[in-house]
Amino acid sequence: MKKITVGLMGFGTVGSGMAKILLENQEVIEPRLGASLVLKWIADLDLERDRGVDVDPGILTQDAEVVINDKEVDIVVELIGGYEPARSLLLKAIENGKHIVTANKALLAIHGDEIFSAASQKGVEVGFEASVGGGIPLIRSIKEGLVANRIEGLFGILNGTANYILTKMTDEGSPFSEVLKEAQALGYAEADPTFDVEGIDAAHKLTILLSIAYGVPIDFKAVYTEGISKVTPLDIRFIQEFGYRIKLLAISKDDGEAIEARVHPTLMPDDSMLANVNEAYNALYIKGDAVGNVMLYGPGAGMMPTGSAVVSDLVDVARNILRDAAGRVPSVGYQPSGIKQRRIKSIEELQTEYYFRFSAEDRPGVLSKVAGILGKHQISIKSVHQQGRDLAGAVPIVMITHEAREAAVQVALSEIQQLDVVKDETILIRIEDWR
User: Are residues 217 and 117 part of one domain?
Assistant: First the structure.
């Protein structure tokens, strides 16, 4: 039986999962592939730590150059993470004629165009299914399964840590800081959780999806990004009273003229499918012009789910090697000539409904002052709650608006914030109801 040789760089959680699957599931993989995937090298700086995977010590090395320079290695897998040395190693592997597989969403969101272009010029494959959604086949579904569709919208819960935190805050009423500590203790959140809780990780993933869905160049800076660290149990309580749940949502819409690309806390009706994706699970809701609405759901991270996605890429690349068909499917699903610059809308252009919470003095006429400023900027109130004194002598005034323009909303809130009766920072959360 023909052998396809694999070299792995990075033997952490995902690398361990990939190795475990390759070593233990060969009897599943070989009949489907018609060849065997042979793991020849594993490169990692730490060769002593027990990963729970029984590998031959002879394939371990601390030198990643050994992997990318070995003429027998057909596919190089990069699971190091970060920007460097991952970028340089991948580009050198491509120059050496190696096909590559990576789960590195941060790298692809910043340097993806460079890597995809180099691979195209060299005639090698780039597999990156594991970079978005862990074990959920999101990339292949858009790139191949929905190839006949214009993608009208993407709505994704793409970060399991943030989703876990918001689920616990909603179900238990606990504050953000307390649930974050719990998530860190359980291994859901890193010691430095910034990328997860400030929306950066989800924005990396959305950047990759934009390229696949719309054939646009990689542009991470164009994605508006906002995290969940300001969400409070008080807001969650009001949100529930209005019939919503809150999620950190990655959103893209294409109106034919320009594309929306944003990540931020979002209210959704509590009976919608995405609103009920809980704990550390991920999901992507896709709107295609031909297929209609599709939702993909599952574990968005973890040793075995993400390792499964890496191995699926290995099998996909190996099939093309066996048929001498490298490049059969372009890296992002579009031929290089089909990649076109599209305008990405600024957040100020957004038109949606909003949730506001003001903290104001308990005096007559406060509500009318706030409503007057909103009305002056063409912001219409759909619903309002004004409750008892909760916030250190102030009362919370909570509003849901009709659809309004973000630019007008920001100006109005700035004016309201200057009122002497308004205390503390006004809370704004955007609403999506696209069912």
Answer: no
